[in-house]
Design brief:
The structure holds 2 protein chains of 2 kinds. Chain A is of the alpha/beta class. Helices cover 36% and strands 21% of the residues of chain A. Chain A is globular and about 95 Å long. By secondary structure, chain B is of the alpha/beta class. Chain B has 2 domains: 267 residues, Thiamin diphosphate (ThDP)-binding fold, Pyr/PP domains (Rossmann fold, 3-Layer(aba) Sandwich); 35 residues, no CATH class. In chain B, 49% of the residues are buried. The chains are: A alpha/beta, B alpha/beta. At the A-B interface, α1, β9, α9, α11 and α12 of A face β1, β2, α2, α4 and α11 of B. Bound molecules: iron/sulfur cluster.
Amino acid sequence: MTDTLPRIVGTRELDRLVVRFAGDSGDGMQLTGDRFTSASAFFGNDLATLPEFPAEIRAPQGTLAGVSAFQVQVSDHDITTPGDAPNVLVAMNPAALRKELPHLEVGGTVIVNQDAFMERNLAKAGYEGDPLEDGTLDNYTLFKVPMTTITKEVCKELGVKPRDAERSKNFFALGLVSWLYGRPTQPTLDWIEAKFKRQRLVADANSAAFKAGMAFGETAELFDFNYEVRPAALKPGTYTHVNGNTALSWGLVAASQQAKVPLFLGSYPITPASDILHELSQRKNFGVRTLQAEDEIAAICSALGASFGGNLGVTTTSGPGVALKSETIGLAVSLELPLLIINIQRGGPSTGLPTKTESADLMQAMYGRHGESPVPIVAAYSPSQCFFAAIEAARIALKYRTPVFLLSDGYLANGSEPWCLPDIASLPDLAVEFATVPNHTNDDGSEVFWPYLRDPETMARPWAVPGTPELTHRIGGIEKEDGTGNINYESDNHGHMVKLRNDRIAHIANDISATMLEGDIEDAELLVVGWGSTWGAIVSAMTRVRKEGHKMAHAHITHLNPLPKDLGDILRSYRKVIVPEMNMGQLCRILRAEFLVDAQSISKVQGVPFTAAELHHHIIGALDD
Amino acid sequence: MTNVPTTTKADWSSDQEVRWCPGCGDYSILTAVQLLMPELGVRREDTVFVSGIGCAARFPYYMNTYGVHAIHGRAPALATGLAMARPDLHVWVVGGDGDMLSIGGNHLLHVLRRNVNLNILLFNNQIYGLTKGQYSPTSEIGKVTKSTPDGSIDEPFNPISVALGAEASFVARTHDMDRQHMMEMFRRAHNFPGAAFVEVFQNCNVFNDGAFGAITKKDKRASMLIHLEHGKPVRFGDDNEKGVILNSYGSAEIVDVADVGEDALLVHDENSQEPSLAFALSRLSAGPFEPTPIGVFRSVERSEYAAEASKQLAWAQEQSGPGDLASLLHSRATWEVS
Ligand code: SF4
């Protein structure tokens, strides 16, 4: 290979490209996808990603169950989803090919690691013949590349053992695809240097494999063209590349800074929320305290204890964890203290699909406690927007002294996109006023502190933290008298307190932004109402639908409790309303109950997000109805 | 502790009417705590009582301090967050045997293991009081209650052994009939920097009256309570005629001093790093019907959790300076779009 002169190949321009990297879970596909993404971000493309991995840490090698995949869409224009059918599939073994081929667009490109297509692996994947030879791939453009062989060869010169060399084959694949789609190479080489600086041989092997992949693309007679996706015309600014969990963690740090209240995270490891605990445990220089608690209950209880002490208490979890925390959330409702409960939703019920996405915990957030215990709910709708959603949830919790749910999901948590970094000065001021002096005068003239004497405007009770003289008080979960906070079991008092807790949360509707509404607001035939991570797919689908000449509008709900005040009028002003959700129609049911409108549910519960094509299909179907 | 105003018991008593059953052992524990507080040289506003659910858990309402009456079993967890967030406070956790050994058993274990700076008072009455008389995790086998009409078949916990098994650093036992001893144990707990666990034998005169009578009645104490005193031979009896030795299996055993001689007696060492000695003493009595040790079983200082957490924060700020939000957002690869 070394003495072959580089061939001249043509370059074709694409406006967008969807690549799916798939291999065994030990093949490093998440890393490969992530590097491709970072290089594309660096290049200036807009992009969105969808990592998918098996629930098992190491599923049996070579089997369908062990396939790990990473999909990324890169584009020269603004995009909101990781794309529907991939244009390119990189399959590192037969199982990956078998599992992922059905997703590929017909006529798409398949790049396989030819070396992995041995009889044993074919059998493990359930192939009877060899799909590379038997016509299975007739409708696709197939490139067979001996990735393992070449990688071993280039590594041999470095003195790397063949077994170790084999591990670098994902970098070969990355090099090849990077060449094929004109990705910049320096960011990846720099990254390898930095990442493996303490393992010289590994760094050299990975760099060599990566370069060999590039060289192979350029020199092998397989490829007639390579492709280019030009940078997108994104709004000017400084960009970084984040996933939802990182953005959310940073949002929590920002909220704590803006409030000048220390952040305390009590958490128990659970997929897909653990990365928030990991990220925040590295933010100690911001005064962030993290506790990996003994269980989900201790996690939220410690957060509530920290809130009582004057911190912003936060607990992060997924649906099964919320189920365990619900009694404590009820206590927080009764104590009227700020607390954030962050649910990175996943497929349920029970253990369900730990690594797959779903948004079926809305009813749990709304009603999953005993008694009447309303809790405000904020939902994030894109990976980078998780930052602002966290700040907003904290704002409500701090200002109104209440537990607040922040809902994200596995798709947002692990999905990533370029993020135009906000100006810190533009972030809201969340300054908190703690109580410092008694607030009530007894008949005998003595000054006392009443823990449940409310601010007339916010209906929030004072936050008096231990250490403050003269404000000693006791609070608890037993029904209490408003004002004094003393235990009170009277029936009239209970009725009053239930209504009060209800009203004070409903009242927050006066202090949230209007419904996000876009599209043909004036004259749409159809309104699509979404919440959470469906945003990207709805926006993409709407672009297509409107291009085809239809009139539609999209309302996206970021505050699910209380709902925005303008929502009822919006729903009633369109003839048709459909509500796509990754659950069996939970928001749809709330809208019907709340506003008596004939909203129709579009449901998907398969552990993967809606594609824009699916939504396009549903929307056209509803329009034709 | 300068400038702490002088206080009396009345200053530490809230205006709430105490609502335990007349004659309940909880009253005397409350009195002991309220009497002790003025002696500790701490401020009311720097003191917090946290509880779960149960009769004992009403305790915070009666203390004129900060207080949280939380949910069943979770007081140690809530108090952990509070103590971490606010290492400047004196946090007490109060609960019963059901609260802390049954529904909240897990939290008790972990708070002891972590050595969070809390004073944990476990009122052990060997019964469920608030739910009206079911057997508890410390009830004896054969206990007939509403939920065990044919007698309990559960092996009870020995709270001292449980605490020691959970790596507790400070472990003590006292009882509700001896105010001075209670005050002494609570003072020791307060002074201990870390999780201090005190089991208090408490009489529930409504559902389990006299559970500890065989050892705590005035005329029984000398012969049935074994006072553990650091550095002293372990002896008891009406005429101090009984003593405790460690036998060849490492178990504690009661002997007649006359038989073995004074020099053979076990000398108590509450500072022994190895918890075996304390554990052996905790196993001396199978229940409040045979001679039972009270006092401090173990008091061994080690790193305190909240302080360690604060140290890591201080270290992080030393290493990377106080957090700067803009730098955090720019901490990954960034690029400009113009
Ligand atoms: S039920 Fe027992 S423990 Fe509870 S208050 Fe009455 S006497 Fe005390």
